[in-house]
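Re: the request from the purification team.
They wanted to know what the chain is likely to look like in 3D before they choose a buffer screen. I agreed to run a prediction and write the result into the notebook, where they can find it.
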Amino acid sequence: MAAGDEEEGLSQDQRLRRQRNEQPKGVRVSSLVGAVLLLVGMLAASQLRDWRYYKEDVADEKGHVGEFAIREIVHVEKIKHQAEMAQGKLELKRLQSELDRLREEHKAAGGHVVTKKQKPPKAAKGKEGKQGKGSKPKKKKVKIQVSKQEAADLAAKKAKPNTVKALGKEGYRAYLQADYEKKMANHEKKMVPRKFQLSADLQEIVDSYDGSLSPPKYCYESPTGKSVHPREPDEEDSLYADLDLEVAKKILRLASAEYPCLVLSRECADDKEKHQYADRYYNHLHKMYFVNKEGENSTLTREEILRRLPDFPAQKLGTCAIVGNADNVLEGKYGEEIDEHDFVVRFNVVTKPFSEFVGTKAGGMLVKTNYKDTEYKRDVVPTMYNLFPKVSVRISSRPSKRDLLLTSEFNPQYVPFELDPSTLPGERPPLVYNSADYSDWRRDEEQMFWAYLEEKNLTHFAGEHVGFGIPKIPHPTGGISRVRSLIQLLRSGVCDRLDMYGFSVGGGKYFQPEKVVSHAHPIQSENYFYRLWMATGVQGKFCVYGK
């Protein structure tokens, strides 16, 4: 049959399909590139339009709902926006993959795909055909076929434990549910009030409290007598700090409890006349830090062990300051004011680019090793103490490489064997918590925290695990326990006064503004506690600076 006769025998649809197949692959590639660019433009325009409408809706909603509800709406809409963008990216990725496949086919057929970053190659010389003289043959990719189950097993081995990838969706759901029930049981246990009695002067402060958060007069003077400006009441207090008076008094009473050995000292572990549990404190100290993981006791004597602890309260630190991470320090140049203090404790890791805001002095430091390989790694070492390093597995007297990693300069957040300062930053000794007093504090802290959450209707502030419907339990930050430990140095007379900088009701870090506080931590509660302590003087001369 002649070609013309064959063409006449085809339907219109068949003729169109033949014409499309006979088009050069380069034309098909160009068409697909155009489709990709068109899709990108449509996606961008759609997202910009939706975002503009969304902002207008939020502006309207602000007149009808509270600030907390607005934040929740923004959070949910942000997640939806991210999900839509992710779907768009998947479609672009699929089209890009198809484009790459067509380019490879076109290239294999002898054509050349020109991109913006490359020019067409010069024609190869020689009689070796299309490859040209001296060109290497293409290596064939070898694919190993594995079953779906084998692929899932391999992925699970690579995944982190307790994740969807490692456990599967149902397994992860079961893990989240069990974890929630465990945390709730622990929470309910802490909510049982313990019996304690305040001294007469502290009870008088609680009973006479009138609800004011105004700073006392001494907070308006720096340690050298310069005029300074503490955190004062403002219009936002109605949102964060306006509590029923009886709830405020309940929180104040819990905050007034005494934990004389929250920071473990020589006196706490040795003076039985002042501390009835001195032997218990010493035995716990010995078990935790002076018995290695092989079960061998340290060769240090009791007297040598006690000398590894600070000589509080006999040792005096003078005027003390705490410097946190909050970006509110950038609103005031506190550097000179901070460095006036005799002993400065830093919760942060970097100072030099921000010295006019946060100062440079560092008597004590809390080091977070997750910044050690970043541009935010610490640029100072403590001159006196490493504060409250974490407790790791017991370290061997014959340490392995892993043990050395846990206690070396590369990972200085762990307590070393025998409290040896030689492996800590600046070779300064550690201050450690006393677990006996620490457990009482954690119970009182939980009750303060939840009294605030219930009063401000924030018990569900942490939200839930997306896609599983299991609630997250809000909880305090670790920072408030460290602050309360330093408060004990103030109450025992080790510090003359204690001034706080870089703690806020939210926001980011001063050196990393996008790093905001998680919803798991309703940080406004802790800020209220600090201001309450300042206003009443229940902890001594304690002042808060910065909003």
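For the purification team: The chain has 18 helices and nine strands.
Please add any questions underneath this entry.
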